[in-house]
Amino acid sequence: MGVQSDKWQDCELRSKAPPLDDDVAIVVDQVIMKLPDRTKRVIVKWYRTDLPNITIAQQLNLTPGTLVTAWHISLNFLLHKLLNTNHKGVLALLRFRE
Fold this sequence. Notes:
There is one protein chain. This protein is an all-alpha fold. Helices cover 61% and strands 0% of the residues. It has one domain: Arc Repressor Mutant, subunit A (Orthogonal Bundle), CATH 1.10.10. It has helices at 22-33, 37-48, 53-59, 64-83, 88-96. Helix 2 packs across helix 4. The longest helix is centred in the last third of the chain and has 20 residues, at 64-83. It starts with 21 loop residues before the first helix and ends with a helix.
């Protein structure tokens, strides 16, 4: 058993990635802004909101299963676009994921 505490946590704990360097953040934002509208909407709603997947799916007129497929397709498209920037900092982040 652990040390007892009077504090109660109602929320799920999540770790957060550190912020990107300014130059990397600018490049990533530029790439995202240039994405096709539907791809951008999937990426932005998935990563920049705390909405549950079912709500995101409803807002995008998708089923929950189709949302996951759209998310995978959008991520692969975004990966391709980020690789094509040839930005040293962006490429370093992409190598980190491997």
